[in-house]
């Protein structure tokens, strides 16, 4: 089993659910749109360990309640923190293609 076999399995399963017949084209960088949210998945194999990076572009923050949305992100991060390599949410004011 290679280091990215589990990642390929994940991509294969997402493609099967999405009725995409050629999952191999998503192995390097996978871009999907789910419920109007753009997601990009990438596999990283580094000395520190393996990881799947998931970027989700959920659009601009709401004009009203912007501070509440940012506080909610901080609160989610607090509850997800379990030490090194914990998942985290963040905000990027400059929308761009991540990968």
TrEMBL record:
It comes from the Bacteria. This is Predicted ATPase. The lineage of its organism: Bacteria, Pseudomonadati, Pseudomonadota, Gammaproteobacteria, Pseudomonadales.
């Amino acid at each position: 089993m290679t280091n990215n076999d589990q990642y390929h399995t994940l991509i294969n399963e997402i493609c099967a659910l999405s009725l995409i017949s050629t999952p191999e084209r998503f192995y390097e960088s996978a871009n999907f749109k789910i419920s109007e949210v753009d997601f990009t998945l990438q596999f990283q194999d580094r000395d520190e360990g393996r990881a799947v990076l998931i970027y989700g572009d959920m659009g601009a923050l709401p004009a009203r309640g912007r501070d509440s949305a940012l506080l909610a992100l901080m609160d989610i991060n607090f509850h997800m923190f379990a030490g090194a390599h914990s998942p985290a949410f963040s905000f990027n004011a400059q929308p761009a293609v991540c990968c």
